[in-house]
């Protein structure tokens, strides 16, 4: 069969959909890919895989009707030429306009992948945001019911779009995230440098990812250490974004000037940063699917601090309270009684949930984030223990090959 994959950003076709494309090719299907504009590096990598790339004109954000009409026109022309049997689209603009074009000019089966509800489904802040949210809901209600199937990465998104009558039970498929290549992100034991602890955040630099909360927590923790600040590091890696809630370059420069957070920039290969870290932190309140960066950090073997919010909460495996001493916090016997009896009470009073491989904190809560960071500083032995648990969880639940197999089966491929 011929499969057309439509994404918003060309590079995501390799970085995020690469293993899925290879799985399709291994099954004997032909694959064609489309995304916004030309990207020579991505096009070359896709060509090596045997995939033809078609550039289209697509604005990843914004509400310009003329641009969207051009997008539908480009997609219709391209779909007529390609004549796919199956169309898979991900992110809101490709889902909406790709699904619309496919139904206008072909009889292909159309599958949509909801990788999180995004900015439009965040609590509205201002008139423009409210309009975007209304438009997004209207478009989803118009397009998604016509899909052959809809993939979801977390149960909260599935529940919300079913309530909005955007999909039905027999069309909805719940996946365990987009998956992670555990072989590529090989396990790497936490580097045990005496007295050193490095907290890493990798994300697009938008405030809804919790970047400012992370910086504020770093500032609060750093002030406690005073002259010992050199043994404690906070790092942020990621690209500046065009999102309405993006962090400015001027703000990033202030982090460097203040010496609170080390900004690593956008990394072409994030694995060295993960390996050099002790704990991975993503205090996001963005409407995530399942954050890929968390899965990558888990695969390398890092404990997680993230929010008790849709898409993020699924990445921390919570244990029963009476099993905490055996599973989640395997402490020396001399402290075992204290941990079993007091740890959950300590966590509850601070709004935390301590799991097998990490800690959940309430969204937008700097004090809780500080408490979670302090937990690892006070219990450094848990970094390696929870890190190994993260790797096991990544292997058991989030392996990309398991996720791709489920997708191929659902699509009849």
What does this protein structure show overall?
The protein is of the alpha/beta class and 413 residues long. Helices cover 43% and strands 16% of the residues. The chain has 15 helices and 14 strands. The protein has helices at residues 12-15, 18-26, 40-49, 65-82, 92-105, 127-143, 155-163, 211-225, 249-258, 271-276, 292-300, 333-349, 366-378, 381-397, 400-410; strands at 2-9, 30-36, 52-56, 86-90, 109-114, 149-152, 172-174, 197-202, 232-237, 262-265, 279-282, 304-307, 353-354, 358-361. It has a 7-stranded parallel beta sheet, with helices on both faces. The chain has a 7-stranded mixed beta sheet with strand order 10-9-8-11-12-14-13, sandwiched between helices. Helix 2 (18-26) packs across helix 15 and helix 11 (292-300) crosses helix 14 (381-397).
What's the end-to-end separation, in Å? 8 Å
Task: Give the strand order of the largest sheet, numbering strands 1, 2, ... along the chain.
Answer: 3-2-1-4-5-6-7
Low-confidence stretches: 321-334
Helix content: 40-55%
Structural class: alpha/beta
What is the count of helical runs?
15
* CA gyration radius, whole angstroms: 22 Å
Biggest sheet, open or closed, and with what strands and sense?
7 strands, parallel
Count of DSSP strands:
14
Q: Looking at the structure, what is the overall shape? A: globular
- Give the H and E element order: EHHEHEHEHEHEHEEHEHEHEHEHEEHHH
Residue-averaged pLDDT: 88
Beta-sheet strand percentage? Answer: 15-25%
């Amino acid at each position: 069969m011929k499969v057309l994959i439509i994404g918003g950003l060309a590079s995501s076709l390799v970085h995020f959909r690469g293993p899925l494309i290879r799985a399709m090719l291994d099954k004997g299907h032909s694959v064609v890919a489309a995304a916004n504009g030309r990207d020579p590096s991505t096009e070359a990598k896709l060509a090596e895989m045997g995939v033809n790339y078609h550039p289209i004109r697509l604005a990843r954000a914004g509400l310009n009707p003329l641009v969207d009409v051009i997008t539908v026109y480009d997609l219709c022309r391209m779909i007529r030429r390609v004549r796919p049997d199956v169309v898979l689209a991900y992110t809101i603009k490709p889902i909406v306009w790709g699904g619309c074009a496919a139904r206008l000019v072909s009889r292909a089966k159309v599958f949509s992948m909801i990788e999180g509800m995004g900015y439009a489904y965040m609590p509205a802040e201002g008139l423009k945001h409210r309009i975007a949210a209304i438009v997004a809901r209207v478009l989803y209600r118009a397009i998604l019911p016509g899909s052959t199937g809809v993939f979801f990465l977390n149960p909260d998104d599935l529940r919300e779009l079913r309530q909005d009558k955007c999909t039905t039970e027999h069309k909805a498929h719940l996946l365990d995230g987009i998956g992670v290549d555990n072989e590529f992100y090989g396990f790497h034991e936490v580097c045990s440098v005496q007295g050193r602890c490095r907290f890493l955040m990798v994300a697009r630099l938008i405030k809804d990812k919790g970047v400012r909360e992370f910086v504020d927590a770093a500032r609060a923790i750093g002030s406690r250490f005073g002259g010992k600040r050199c043994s404690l590091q906070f790092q942020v890696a990621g690209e500046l974004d065009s999102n309405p809630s993006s962090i400015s370059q001027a703000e990033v420069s202030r982090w460097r000037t203040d010496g609170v957070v080390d900004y690593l920039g956008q990394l072409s290969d994030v694995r060295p940063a993960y390996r050099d870290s002790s704990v991975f932190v993503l205090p996001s309140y963005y409407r995530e699917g399942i954050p890929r960066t968390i899965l990558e950090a888990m695969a390398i073997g890092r404990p997680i601090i993230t929010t008790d919010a849709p898409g993020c909460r699924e990445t921390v495996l919570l244990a029963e309270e009476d099993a905490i001493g055996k599973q989640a916090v395997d402490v020396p016997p001399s402290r075992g009684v204290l941990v079993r009896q007091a740890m959950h009470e300590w966590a509850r009073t601070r709004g935390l949930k301590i799991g097998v491989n990490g800690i959940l904190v309430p969204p937008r809560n700097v004090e809780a984030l500080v408490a979670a960071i302090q937990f690892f500083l006070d219990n450094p032995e848990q970094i390696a223990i929870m890190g190994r648990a993260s790797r096991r969880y990544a292997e058991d639940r989030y392996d990309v090959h398991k996720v791709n197999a489920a997708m191929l089966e659902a699509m009849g491929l």
